Amino acid sequence: MNNVYKLHVRLIKTGLQNDPVSLRRLLLSFAAAAPASLPHARSVFARVPFPDTFAYNTLIRAHAHSSPSHSVSLFSAMRRDGVSPDNFTFPFVLKACARLHIGHDAHALIIKLGLGSDIYVQNGLISLYGSFGSVAGAFDVFDEMPERDLVSWSSMISCFANNNFGYEALGLFQDMQLVGNLKPDEVTMLSVISAVSSLGALELGKWVDAYISRTGLKRTVSLGTALIDMYSRCGSVDDSIKIFNAIPVKNVLTWTVLINGLAVHGRSEEALKVFHEMKNAGLKPDHITFNGVLVACSHGGLVDDGWRVFESIKSDYGMEPTVEHYGCIVDLLGRAGLLNKAFEFVDTMPIKPNAVIWRTLLGACVKHNDLKLSEKAKVKIHELDPNHDGDYVLLSNVYGQVGKWDEKANVRNSMREKKVGKKPGYSFLNEGDMLQEFVSGDDFHPKSNEIKRFLVSIIDDLRLDGYTFFTCNALHDVEDEEKEQSLSFHSEKLAVAFALLRFKDRKTIRVIKNLRICYDCHCFMKHVSNKFDREIVVRDRNRFHHFSKGSCSCKDYW
After folding, report:
1. pLDDT digits over 227-274, tens only?
2. Is residue 234 within 8 Å of 202, Cβ to Cβ?
3. How many other CB atoms are found less than 10 A from the CB of residue 456?
4. 8 Å CB contact between 395 and 359
5. Per the confidence metrics, is the pTM higher than 0.85?
6. In what residue span(s) does the DYW domain sit (predicted)?
7. CA distances in angstroms from 528 to 334, 463, 493, 532, listed in the order given
8. Which of 429, 410, 395, 427 is nearest to 503 (CA)?
9. Is residue 399 a contact partner of residue 434, using CB atoms and an 8 Å limit?
10. Residue 130 and residue 155 in contact, taking contact as beta carbons nearer than 8 Å
11. For helices 38-46 and 53-63, what crossing angle results, to 10°?
12. φ and ψ at 117, to 5 degrees?
């Protein structure tokens, strides 16, 4: 940075501050020193009497990553000044627009200016469309490219992965390997890993890991950290630990990802141990690290440890706890049944509690059947976020658990009157190169009748072994038989029944669910794991449950 200032002073002393060649050199120096140099760069640029395309491009490029709004403003000024953009202008303008989620009309302007066939501009358009969630628009650009480079393929794979088209991302990655002269780099593989993570497909994850080793791609900190996260999200935190131990260099994010992985798999004491090892290694935890450690304490019922960690954020590191950290403490206390203490904590928070914190309290009240405090929490939530379907469902459940069916019906009627729809529960599992999806109670799966018949037979067998329906949360005050019918076809049960039917030799069944697993399904999974001698791994909205031999890794503390 000092060298840039020295160069500028030297140009002023020699009278060359307006010389076009000298200005080019100065602007390039500013760009190389970004982002620290950018305010000075803009000041110098403002004094350039007639900036040309090169000058604008240099400043636009320098701002594209760290200050995208300035890039867009410079491009607007360029257009107003009548300076023609070229194929070096748009890649960085499009990058800035993608970060800001603006620029829907950029493609039309590019075509108007005759730059639509430039490969660098096309690559930028793929990324731009991807940032909008317009996968079709991105693929149209990709499909029409007469030639593609590594960035083209990587951008399209990233677009698929970031928009939940995991199998399409992996399919395109396989197509890319058929192009002889292209070798995937770190950027490509990070997108591929992201796709696998979203699918929770462990076997595909192992294949990607082996591919990286086989091709000799260097395991950088970023790549290693992504693999740790991938294995955790695919349900195998033991593989995450192996990758972690094999990485020679680790940064704060690497440690944090492992702590988070252990936390959501219910291995709370191990997460706490890794946290202390991180501190002993001389690394300073950040806000995300503390969030992961507090989640671990919450899931493991480590109340005292959680308090100590929370207090250390300010006392040991001089950081102010965030609202997420306060929310973790509320969850920690609520799960442990310390509801009054949790309410006192919220009342004395130095920052205003948001709807998420009150919602966490509501969930704890429902778990511990505290109707009075549930209603208090619901009032607070209604003031902040009155139309969230989950709050109505939770309150409805607590009424059901204490047998107040009229009040439960009133909550459901209120949902209908306010047009608050209940989010449907769905689950999916991986079969080869496709997803099998199941929605609670529906008949859309092509083998729906066969699956339901088999599921009913499973439930009948499990009842002989002591399984009974937990009907308190069934939707209506109806006969027990009707309540049981409602619970029988929850999406995760359908997914497990399908897996038992289809995969006779598969010892582990992996299911991903969009909502928190209910108490009845949790009991069902324990019984199935014992009856059929299978390990069942359920990744729900909050955490992983590993069911084996009639018990769950959460130890029924969830």
Report:
1. 999 999 999 999 999 999 999 999 999 999 999 999 999 999 999 999
2. yes
3. 14
4. no
5. yes
6. 467-558
7. 30, 11, 10, 6
8. 429
9. no
10. yes
11. 160
12. -100, 5
pLDDT tens per residue across span 4-31: 556 655 666 666 566 666 677 777 776 7
- Provide the residue type at 116 as one letter: G
Maximum CA pair distance of the chain? 95
Cα–Cα distance between 460 and 466 in angstroms, integer? Answer: 10
User: How many angstroms separate the CA atoms of 377 and 202, rounded?
Assistant: 39
Range 128-134 contact pairs with CB under 8 angstroms and sequence separation of 24 or more = 128/94, 128/97, 128/98, 128/103, 129/159, 130/98, 130/155, 130/158, 130/159, 130/162, 130/163, 131/97, 131/98, 131/99, 131/101, 132/101, 132/104, 133/163
Write the DSSP symbol of residue 117. T
DSSP 3-state of 430: strand
Structure tokens at 508: 């582990």
The residues pairing with 536 across neighbouring beta strands, listed in sequence order, are 509, 547
- Could you give the angle at which helices 237-246 and 202-214 cross, rounded to 10 degrees? 20
Other beta carbons within 10 angstroms of residue 6's beta carbon come to 11
CB 217 within 8 A of CB 251: no
Tell me 379's DSSP state. H
**Residue type present at position 521:** C
Crossing angle (nearest 10°) for helices 53-63 and 68-80: 160
Q: β-pairing, 426-431 with 544-548?
A: unpaired
**CA–CA–CA angle 513, 410, 399 (5° rounding):** 60
- Tell me the residue ranges of DSSP E strands in 371-479: 426-431, 434-439
Task: Give the three-state DSSP class for 344.
Answer: helix
The mean pLDDT of 151-179, rounded to a whole number, is: 95
Query: Hey, what amino acid is at 218?
Result: K
Residue 27 · residue 18 · CB < 8 Å: no
CA 274 to mean position of chain CA atoms: 22
Q: Does the bond joining 321 to the residue before it have cis omega, within 30 degrees of 0? A: no
